[in-house]
Predict the structure.
Amino acid sequence: MKPTILRVGLTGNIAVGKSTVARWMASFGCHVLDADILGHQCLEPNETTYDRVVDAFGPSVLQEDGTIDRSLLGARVFSDDDNRAKLEAIIHPAIRTKEQLQVDQIERRSGPGIVVTEAALLYETGSVDRYQRIVVVTALEDLCLKRLLDRGLSTNEAYDRMATQMAQAEKSTLADYVIDNSGDRKATREATQVVCEQLQLDLAEWMAGNRLRST
């Protein structure tokens, strides 16, 4: 059976503007999934991963209503490599399962198309092999820092989160397409449109059974 879905990983370091690019990709006809949302679902009380996270990190991560305090949990894992690895080992396989289920639903419902998964840690977690194409969003480091501070993080928290990720230059070298989000929104949107047009050509090649060219 020939493939009808081109799977695309949309990644980039924290605060580069991945979500903005993802929204524009959706406006250009791509189906977009958000790994963060899938990860939040994995922390809900009705999920098996909820119990595993509470067992691993203790009841101190719970709020009064019994839900996991994502901010508190995030602070603990971003400042500790062992804690981060522990959480990722629980959550990431569950995210991949949920993602695949949604891809299958899109294929059944909509037929041929491009499914983009927005995820920050594709390279860091060795997850790129699930995708036919990888798009990396970049932005100047100083701009990323400013965006994190504007979100209410302290300088130390911002640097801790930035330090957990692979260098932007390395990701850009490995990517199939790179979108620079350091400039104005109009330029970034136009760059996103160009990438989506290229992905449509990639989809046609993929559906024809041809090997995708190196970019």
